[in-house]
Amino acid sequence: MEKLYSRIRNFKLPKKDEINSVFTAFSKNEKIIFAALVLALFISTVSILQSINKSLMVEVPFRGGSISEGIIGVPRFINPILANSSVDQDLVSLIYSGLMRKNPDGTLTPDLAEKYEISQNGLSYTFTLKDKIYFQDGKPVTADDVIFTVNKAKDSVIKSLHKVHWDGVTAAKINDMTIEFTLRQPRPSFLENATLGIMPQSLWDNSPIELNDANTAPVGSGPYMIKSVAKESSGIINSYELTSFEEFILGEPFIKTINLHFYSNEDDLIRALEEGAIDQVSSITPSNADDLKEKNYRVESSVLPRVFGLFFNQNQNNLFTDKIITKAIDQAIDKDKIAREVLFGYGIAIDDPIPPNMIAYQKLAGGNGATREEILKNVQDSLAKDGWSKGPDGFLQKTTADKNKKKTTATLQFSISTGNAPELALTAELIRQDLSAIGMKVDIKTFEVGNLNQSVIRPRKYDALLFGQIINNESDLYAFWHSSQRKDPGLNVALYTNAKVDKILEEAFTTQDEQERVKKYAQFEDEIKKDMPAVFLYSPNFIYVVSKNLMGFSIDHITSPADRFLNIYSWYTKTENVWKIFSK
């Protein structure tokens, strides 16, 4: 061992002359082999180092880049209180922040709020604002701005769409950073109300909200702010250039610039996309989406909480008091065919008044595995058993006698009133064809949207109404089905009355326990199915054509088109590779 240590201590590296003498002693072939071995060693070493480096690297979003999106419509009221058009709501979603923010998965997270506390009885919500939160003009966001915004939403003169959510709520300032909301009764969905965008009081308090220049030059605290605007000579806005807001409290967005271009119709919108003037479009018709997908555009879609159905007016046509008839209508309509031919697969057939994915309980699978022919035969048999038979004109008739034995013959016929949108008109025609096949006589009446609302829906002048319900949250079910909402301006277009359903909806509206609330809504659906006040047809998809290099976005649980921008601060088009330890 001592000899080994001695050799190690006395070991010396060879000198340059000694190395050269060895190398010059090599033959030509030996030199070539030696050089090849050295080269192989070098290449393998570099390869190993690259492999090690690659294993330690991860791809992460990189700030920069831009996207251009086309929208149908012209901005008019870019403020959270008055925004009721899709274009205004899109811009509000980009420019404003609320106390809370909805996540792409449907959950809620604090935004401007640092935290919130709920009293045990569910009647008090106390929000504490985060430190160093600013509007895009550099002014701090305070409790005064929050209270100002809420009071504007409640103002009966302004008639905001949000008024119904804030009625009966009192907002009180505890200090500059703390606000307490007091409710008359518990509202499980109140935190969703707190996503309302907060407006700077200093900008809006000096003139009527409808006339304020800030409607088209908005200032919020959201992820993007207005950089420039392009207008026609008439003053109509053509486009906005938005830039990322560095002080956005949830983190500066990755994409630097958002360009929004406005078009008057879908044809112009699609043309601009195909010509390359814009990268993205949304809320287009299923037929256009189908065409674009065939042209290799990236088309994303997700089911919206919309319920399209045939709502019966028993006061206008007493045929609908007969559950045998309403059940026959439900079974005879080929809903899957409507989803295929009207929606081109951008939507799903439904049988329930609650949209898919809205309430977390297991729904029973529809259908019993019968073929289409078997279903129609069962429908015809049930109608025949109820006394209906085909007359000379091929339509079902039924003869009845009054107490004086006077006979009268009635034809099974009714009309469907709907809007003149292509999807609604085609849906109505497919329904007419299905019902005609079993002997029902159906007339279709189409109306321009404004006339449909004013002359048909509001006075309840229709036999059956082909109509879509927008259900943004659970509490909207009360507006569509509670008996108190039967008359205008209520939204109970089926004029449905059921004391048990009223009680269920009232209790669900105030029940804090989620599991108990879910049970209530399951009971609600059971009652609706028994009474058949409507035939539920389909829920359409939100359709979004996006840039192929866009990453980080999600539309899986959106309730409105503007919700596509919920996590826009996380979108990105550029990436870079960094070591994992630096990826945060």
UniProtKB/TrEMBL annotation:
Q: What Gene Ontology cellular component terms go with this record?
A: ATP-binding cassette (ABC) transporter complex; periplasmic space
Keywords, ordered alphabetically = Membrane, Signal, Transmembrane, Transmembrane helix, Transport
Domain of life of the native organism:
Bacteria
Sorted alphabetically, which SUPFAM superfamilies does this protein's record hold?
Periplasmic binding protein-like II (SSF53850)
- TM segments? 32-52
Which GO terms of the molecular function aspect are on file?
peptide transmembrane transporter activity
One annotated GO biological process: peptide transport
Output the InterPro entries linked to this UniProt entry.
Answer: Peptide/Ni-bd (IPR030678), SBP_5 (IPR039424), SBP_5_dom (IPR000914)
> Pfam family of this protein, just one?
SBP_bac_5
Q: Solute-binding protein family domain: which residues? A: 108-483
Q: Could you say which protein family the record assigns here? A: Belongs to the bacterial solute-binding protein 5 family.
PANTHER family per record: OLIGOPEPTIDE-BINDING PROTEIN APPA, PERIPLASMIC BINDING COMPONENT OF ABC TRANSPORTER
Q: What name has this protein been given in UniProt?
A: Extracellular solute-binding protein family 5
